[in-house]
Design goal:
TIM Barrel, 3-stranded antiparallel beta sheet, 11 strands, 39% helix, RibuloseP-bd_barrel, SgcQ protein
Length: 273
């Protein structure tokens, strides 16, 4: 697991989500404010996350609801512009997540210099977005073809708002995904953004793939982060950093600071045990 130190400069890293407002082409894009409003809101959130001490930031088109599984060109172009304009102020490692299109995520990573992507790379699902199919072999070949082989791949193996079309235990999914696809990390999630990741599921996944990085992908809070990091190798955090802990709000700097204080305490305790 040396790559965690290489990318994030710490063990048990916290990856903070920078949720972008709806973008051009999205149903809820605010045309009155335009891209300038999207960029300014992203800047405020990014700076608040950095000042609060997070280990990395992941830019995501979180408010491109309802999501596509093959995104439009304007989405990737908009995200590239946003990250490009914020680059000079970005001081921590960053990743990207173009929901829900792994090929587009890799394209954006190469264009911007992102260190990692998180996506649904494997599986076939019945989802809120229709029948959701993937082709990991094609995506990994594309990764190599565009020179993105050093971009770390975070595989979300519990897609939000979706279920495998056939019943498979999560431990079986974890084992076969690691064997067949060689992910850099597995992300274990709750049912939606902000919903706590089951500690028992995290433990089961970590037990069956002990040599693979396992992240708690949703629902981390200041109140549970110590117990979650005792099992997980790190976490992805979005909702907990927002005003009143609500998904639709922007980042609350005080919540970031309070959360990261608990993270530093958890790391210290784990080091001394």
């Amino acid at each position: 697991m040396n790559w965690l130190q290489e990318v994030y400069q710490t063990n048990k890293p916290i990856i903070a989500m920078c949720h972008l407002n709806a973008l051009p082409g999205d149903p809820y894009f605010e045309k009155s404010g335009g891209m300038e409003k999207v960029i300014e809101d992203a800047r405020k959130d990014m700076l608040a996350l950095q000042a609060g001490g997070v280990d990395a930031i992941m830019f995501s088109n979180e408010f491109s609801l309802p999501y596509l599984t093959k995104v439009k060109t304007e989405t990737v172009a908009s995200m590239a512009r946003i990250i490009g304009q914020l680059m000079s102020e970005l001081k921590v490692p960053f990743g990207v997540n173009v929901l829900w299109d792994p090929t587009a995520s890799l394209d954006l990573a190469v264009a911007t210099g992102a260190k990692f992507v998180r996506e649904i790379f494997t599986g076939v699902y019945a989802s809120d977005f229709g029948l959701w199919d993937t082709n990991c072999g094609e995506v990994i070949r594309h990764q190599r073809a565009i020179g993105a082989e050093n971009v770390r791949l975070l595989f979300n193996i519990v897609p939000e708002a979706a279920k495998y079309v056939s019943d498979r235990e999560l431990t079986q999914i974890a084992k076969t995904t690691v064997f067949n696809c060689k992910p850099d990390a597995l992300c274990v999630s709750g049912i939606t953004a902000g919903q706590e990741t089951s500690l028992s599921l995290l433990r089961l996944v970590k037990e069956v793939v002990p040599d693979t990085v396992v992240f708690a992908n949703t629902g981390l809070k200041a109140e549970n982060v110590k117990s979650q990091l005792a099992v997980a190798d790190g976490g992805v955090v979005g909702t907990a950093f927002k005003y009143d802990g609500k998904f639709e709000n922007h980042v609350d700097p005080d919540r970031v600071i309070a959360f990261m204080e608990q993270v530093h305490s958890a790391r210290s305790n784990l080091t001394t045990v």
